[in-house]
Automatic annotation (TrEMBL):
GO MF annotation list: heme binding; oxygen binding
InterPro entries on file: Globin/Proto
Protein name from the UniProt record: Uncharacterized protein
Length: 275
């Protein structure tokens, strides 16, 4: 059984578009640039609110789609991540943008597209095939990708996989201008990804903020590209090596990304801290 099938967020994604609750309301002036919003988690599942919809509107779906398209361009070029991706021809970026749009309460485009999506069989590395129709089955297929090293076929996502994914995803967010346009959205979005990444590797959330910071330094990106787009400091390293790359306050923080107030988050980080 695919363990992702029991995740509360993935269970919620089985709803049809008509069953998905989208929070709407008067959003144009509902938030201020200084406002900070906690993640709303009910039964282990992220819930959209009028505030998340307003945050989404700060950047808009076109810019979100640019981010997800850029992310997949980076992922295709990354030798580690590309092993999980069966085909470069599928509309990965569009689907990812729809998923984000729906999760933040903008529309039901992901559920609507998923209902129309053709159910094609996908060849797996062990000679079997499967039908990919949602996030759970897609990731199950990725574990058994024909591109993976034989000794890694069937291995679930590990911490190094999640960290590479987050670094490139947040780099894409920077490169299309979302961080510059709305730091407020970007800060929420890092916590949003911190919530969702935990289903793939339980220790991954604590590395989300490091992944975001990594892309802020152009020298980091140049070194990565110059090294053949391989993160030698991450891939196949023991957890102690990963942990040593974090500030102590992040390595020991068991609450993030679920703080109730920004004040609580600041106090946990120490005086003068930001995220």
């Amino acid at each position: 059984m695919n363990p992702l099938s029991s995740d509360p967020d993935i269970i919620a994604e089985r709803l049809t578009a008509t069953e998905v609750e989208i929070q709407r309301g008067s959003l144009a002036t509902s938030i201020d640039k200084t406002d900070w919003f906690p993640l709303l988690i009910e039964g282990g599942s992220h819930r959209s609110t009028t505030e998340t919809r307003a945050l989404f509107d700060l950047v808009g779906k076109d810019m979100i789609a640019k981010m997800t398209t850029k992310f997949y361009q980076l992922a295709f070029a990354d030798p580690h991540l590309d092993k999980f991706i069966r085909s470069h021809n599928d509309p990965h970026g569009e689907r990812f943008a729809n998923w984000i749009s729906e999760k933040l309460g903008n529309d039901t485009s992901w559920s609507e597209e998923r209902a129309r999506r053709p159910r094609h069989e996908v060849e797996l590395a062990d000679g079997r095939s499967t039908v990919v129709h949602d996030r759970s089955s897609a990731h199950g297929a990725a574990w058994h990708s024909v591109k993976r090293e034989p000794e890694k076929v069937g291995r679930h996502f590990k911490l190094d996989d999640a960290r590479v994914w987050m670094r490139l995803h947040f780099l894409a967010m920077r490169e299309v201008g979302i961080v510059e346009k709305s730091p407020q959205f970007a800060e929420y979005y890092v916590r949003f990804i911190g919530h969702f990444v935990k289903v793939y590797e339980g220790r991954a959330p604590m590395f989300a903020r490091e992944a975001f910071r990594w892309g802020a330094d152009e020298e980091n990106v140049k070194a990565y590209v110059g090294n053949g787009r391989i993160f030698n400091e991450i891939i196949d390293k023991p957890f102690t090596s990963h942990l040593a790359m974090l500030p102590t306050e992040e390595a020991e923080d068991v609450i993030w990304p679920y703080y109730d107030t920004h004040k609580d988050l600041i106090e946990a980080r120490g005086a003068g801290a930001g995220w």
